[in-house]
């Protein structure tokens, strides 16, 4: 009987705790709540530098940490500045936030019972106002100094705040920002363009919006920046018929089979494609600048996709996985730099370790499988050319050496032959 009672408790725990936890992590559409990065992702090298805020807490995940308290007064100044530069009173902005507080609470996976409605509304109000005012400041390049009540933040502080507000754990629901923007227009698109320009090697020219970009309904700010930086994914369906996959381990192995690397026209992560000419194949990849800021954002975009519970397109994760496949040693990173595809601030070894450290934990998206299938199809359809190219590629040094030797011997043989022809015959 005791064993039966124990089994009942186990079943009850499974039906209550587990299902409740799962339902709390995902909404009815299958989209995740704002939640903390799983422990296995935090096990990678330099995880704190990738996932933890440096200077400011946005939302409840890092609320109360001592090292982040310095920005709390600045948030209040930002809220005052944001609300007082319109015809509406502060109370109207606050009421708008209060009206969406139930939906905002449901957007978080963690237990928020420590915050009553007043405390939670106050947090969302200050954090939302700060984000929108900061975006306005960046979009307008601050404008005339007399119009700004916030402290004159140094370029270093602006970069540190820019980093922190795009961490996956440091988000407020988009419904809160929408509630505030009903009373004041914010140049969100201009801010997003400024943010994704950090990835682009064409510094003087921000990326243009793609068709349908303005129709996207983001979950939070990081999701919106991810969507714009990713760009439109190919709608081509994968051929589900079984076929052999090309076993490629590096960028240099692609060159060996006659597939050349080239830079795409944009730095968007979805701007990847496979083409072919009469002689060579071509793998097109986005030229991306990888600095401390962009590596941090890239990692958090991929982490957000992983937390979406199977509803994501995994576009950023696909980019990371493709780059990881192309890197097996430092020479591969050097090849990607030579082809103007990667512009890393780290060494070749550090860049290799960065991609190899995060890729094992990320999912594979449809873009990843599509690109690998297209590379395999190229190899299968051009077996004879691939074999010939591989032979020439691997023996080019010997062929050139033999050609040089032959080129050196031909004039000598020609000279000997000429001497023999002009030698007087014996009497």
Structure report:
With 427 residues, the protein is mainly α. The chain has 17 helices and five strands. It folds into two domains: 25-186, no CATH class; 187-381, no CATH class. It has a three-stranded mixed β-sheet. The chain has a two-stranded parallel ribbon with strand order 4-5.
Tell how many strands the DSSP assignment holds: 5
Strand order of the largest sheet: 1-3-2
Number of domains: 2
Helix share bin: 40-55%
pLDDT under 50 segments (min length 5)? Answer: 22-28, 143-147, 396-400
The global form is globular
User: In angstroms, what separates the terminal alpha carbons?
Assistant: 129 Å
Structural class: mainly alpha
Order of helices and strands: HHHHHHHHHHHEEEEHHHEHHH
- C-alpha-based Rg, rounded: 29 Å
Largest sheet geometry: 3 strands, mixed
How many separate helices? 17
Features:
single chain; two-stranded parallel ribbon; mainly alpha; 17 helices; 5 strands; 427 residues
Task: Give me the secondary-structure topology.
Elements: H1 2-25, H2 47-51, H3 72-84, H4 90-99, H5 101-105, H6 117-140, H7 155-164, H8 174-181, H9 188-196, H10 221-230, H11 251-256, E1 259-263, E2 273-276, E3 281-285, E4 288-290, H12 292-306, H13 315-326, H14 330-338, E5 342-344, H15 348-358, H16 366-381, H17 383-422
Parallel strand pairs: 1-3, 4-5
Antiparallel strand pairs: 2-3
Helix pairs in contact: 3-6, 4-6, 4-8, 6-8, 6-9, 9-10, 12-13, 13-15, 13-16, 14-15
């Amino acid at each position: 009987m005791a064993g039966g009672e124990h089994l009942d408790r186990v079943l009850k725990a499974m039906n209550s705790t587990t299902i409740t936890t799962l339902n709390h992590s995902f909404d009815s559409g299958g989209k995740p709540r704002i939640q903390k990065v799983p422990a296995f992702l935090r096990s990678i090298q330099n995880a704190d530098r990738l996932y933890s805020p440096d200077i400011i807490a946005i939302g409840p995940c890092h609320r109360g940490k001592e090292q982040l308290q310095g920005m709390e007064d600045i948030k209040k100044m930002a809220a005052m500045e944001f609300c007082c530069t319109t015809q509406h009173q502060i109370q109207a902005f606050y009421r708008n936030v209060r009206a969406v507080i139930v939906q905002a609470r449901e957007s978080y996976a963690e237990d928020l019972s420590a915050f009553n409605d007043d405390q939670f509304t106050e947090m969302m109000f200050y954090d939302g106002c700060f984000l929108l005012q900061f975006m306005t400041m960046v979009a307008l390049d601050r404008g005339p100094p007399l119009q700004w009540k916030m402290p004159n933040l140094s370029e270093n502080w602006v970069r540190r705040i820019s980093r922190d507000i795009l961490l996956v754990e440091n988000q407020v629901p988009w419904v809160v920002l929408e509630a505030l923007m009903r009373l004041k227009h914010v140049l969100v698109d201009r801010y997003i363009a400024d943010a994704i320009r950090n990835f682009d090697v064409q510094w003087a020219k921000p990326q243009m919006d793609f068709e349908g970009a303005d129709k996207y309904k983001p979950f939070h700010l990081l999701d919106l920046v991810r969507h714009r930086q990713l760009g439109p994914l190919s709608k081509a369906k994968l051929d589900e018929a079984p076929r052999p996959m090309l076993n490629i381990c590096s960028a240099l192995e692609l060159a060996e089979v006659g597939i050349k690397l080239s830079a795409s026209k944009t730095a968007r992560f979805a701007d990847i494609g496979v083409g072919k000419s009469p002689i060579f194949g071509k793998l097109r990849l986005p030229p991306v600048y990888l600095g401390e800021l962009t590596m941090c954002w890239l990692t958090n975009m991929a982490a957000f996709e992983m937390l979406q519970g199977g509803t994501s397109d995994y576009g950023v994760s696909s980019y990371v996985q493709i780059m990881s496949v192309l890197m097996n040693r430092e020479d591969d990173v050097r090849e990607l730099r030579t082809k103007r595809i990667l512009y890393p601030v780290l060494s070749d070894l550090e860049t290799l370790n960065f991609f190899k450290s995060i890729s094992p934990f990320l999912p594979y998206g449809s873009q990843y499988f599509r690109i690998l299938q297209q590379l395999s199809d190229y190899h299968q359809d051009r077996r004879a050319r691939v074999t010939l190219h591989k032979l020439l590629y691997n023996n080019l040094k010997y062929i050139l050496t033999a050609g040089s030797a032959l080129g050196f011997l031909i004039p000598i043989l020609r000279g000997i032959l000429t001497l023999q022809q002009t030698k007087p015959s014996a009497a």
